[in-house]
Amino acid sequence: MDDSTRQRLFGVTHALDHPLVVYTLVVLGALLAAAPLLFLALSAAGKMSPALRKDLWSRYFSWLVFIPMMFGPVLLGAAWTIAAVGVLGILCYREFARATGAFRFPITSFVVVLGIVMVTFATFDHWYGLFVALTPLTIGLIAATAILADQPKGYIQRVALGIVAFLLFGVCYGHLGYLANDTNFRPLLVWLVASVELNDIFAYITGKSFGRRKLVPNTSPNKTVAGALGALVLTTAFAACIGHFVFRSTVLDTPVHLVTLGALVSITGQLGDLTLSSIKRDLGIKDWAATFPGHGGLLDRFNSLLFAAPAVFHYIGYFQGVGLTQHPRIMTGG
Amino acid sequence: MDDWRYKPARDLGLPLGQRLRSIKRETGMVGRLTHRAWWAAMSAYLRCTQKLTIHGQEHLPASPPFILAANHSSHLDAVVLAIAIPPALRWCVFPIAAGDTFFETPAHSVFAAGAMNALPMWRKNCGRHAMEELRSRLLDEPCGFILFPEGTRSRSGEMAAFRPGLGMIVAGTVAPVIPVCLHGTFDAWPPQARRPRRGQRIEVRIGPALEFAGVANDREGWQRIAGEVESAVRALKAHR
Description:
Chain A has 334 residues and is mainly alpha-helical. Chain A has helices at residues 3-10, 19-44, 50-76, 78-100, 106-125, 128-145, 155-178, 185-210, 225-246, 255-283, 298-302, 305-319. Chain B is an alpha/beta fold and 240 residues long. Helices cover 40% and strands 15% of the residues of chain B. Chain B has ten helices and seven strands. Chain B has helices at 16-20, 29-49, 76-84, 87-90, 99-102, 106-115, 128-140, 165-170, 185-188, 219-239, and strands at 51-55, 66-70, 93-98, 119-121, 144-147, 177-183, 201-206. A seven-stranded mixed β-sheet of chain B has the order 1-7-6-2-5-3-4, with helices on both faces. The N and C termini of chain B lie far apart (56 Å).
């Protein structure tokens, strides 16, 4: 393992080298510090009902957990980021399995978790060949091992739930982890995660302000066309502007690429959210879990990253490449 | 082609603390591995420190639903009974434990739920509604319960009368009740002792299954079931 790889994986000395990372941390710190003061001021002015106050505080405390969860591993290094994405995938699968009932099929669940662990290993090793090969191999293994239960009734459902889960939480999230193999991974991931989170906030604010026509009322009754378009415009503008500092001096640092990347983040972010909403409606549940007060489960918070990560990964990969200057197969050699 | 039928976890939507203390709790892969590890460790411990013998394992059913009903005089009882069940069947068996003892604090709940796979029975609230919940879980899942129909540990080692709660769970159902008599657990770990004594002879005697599909689900039926199961356990005790 050469010095640059070791530094990328475990080095924290360069964590704050990029100004975008520093500014993001400062802004987040300021927001977290200001929010309680705002709540107290609104409370003192009598402009917050007790129910709203309780809801806002519970959401605030959840963000106190989310923000270190999202940005802590990125600051610590690529190894921590990849491990955190692997753990996120497994925990999201747990929520999905409990909601769909897939947890009652232990062999399928084991193979899905094994697949996620292997994707995490391939990512850590920077072995793109294995990373790609794991999709058909794990799908085959899920289908083959489901035979062992010797229960043809419900076989398609068992296998399909396992495959969908692996593709969503192993492969799609795996692309988020694989971005950590890029030399420039810290600003890249901070930009992507911040854009996706802001996309949700922009959709909420513009939807509340201007939304009349429902977007897909049976799937997500609170989402409006105005919210979706507002998020598209604002997120594209934000991601393109900030993206300029992330992709400075690369082939992607052109208005066309930056706007396309911004639009891609917004559209795929909203599609990820709507996809998980569709699954929830099909299951007849409101939240994936009750882990985080005011938010629900991890999947309720991180659903927008599901499609945004692979879309951004392959866009960057096609025009510029991801991790090309980093040594591949750092553990397995070859 | 049939529609797909999803069956979310019964405890979906409950925060972790409530999940552990809920009768609806369902465990996944991690929970099963933890339970397996716990029972393997307990099995090894008991076989090393006590002289454990099990008779009548052929009376255990091949699949759930079923109830193991035994006399109760020690904290070792649920552990010994679970070990008497073949590992292939053990994952779907829940010891029913006193909520006010085993689920009183978060630490107790983590141990009772995480290691022992126990479900709580709150002694202040063990009326018909609680029994109906257990009954529907027993049949719908289906699963197995380890029950001590005396309601509490004997402080003298003598078996007390069985309460009718057992009848409320099984009356009119296909779930068999397997009477079990535990010998020696009182001497191995009596209620007054802080920790188990080593080298005691513990014997588990499993009797033939009793079925109550034809018994009415009313007060008279519950009493009858409790009486029949108690007699079966007493007969096993006398058989020694």
